[in-house]
């Protein structure tokens, strides 16, 4: 163990470094335990989010266009006595639709 104080990371704010330098050893141990637990928690959240993103990709229908979100559903609209499939999804307060094709392919 060195007799010199440790060098803080270069990107750590000066105010934070000064606050740590003024803390007691017991307080620093508490901060270290909290920081470790917080880092593990955030890493777990990232892993869960990545897994959720992977699940969304796996659940994505094969015929879903790239510009349509996976949460979109198929609806049927009738226009001039013809029925058409549309992808439809909510984007904030707005409902967005994108043409998919006729219900009856012969139309």
TrEMBL record:
InterPro entries: DUF6788. Residues 44-69 are annotated as: Disordered. Residues 53-106 form the DUF6788 domain. Residues 51-66 have a biased composition (Acidic residues). This is DUF6788 domain-containing protein. It comes from Salinadaptatus halalkaliphilus.
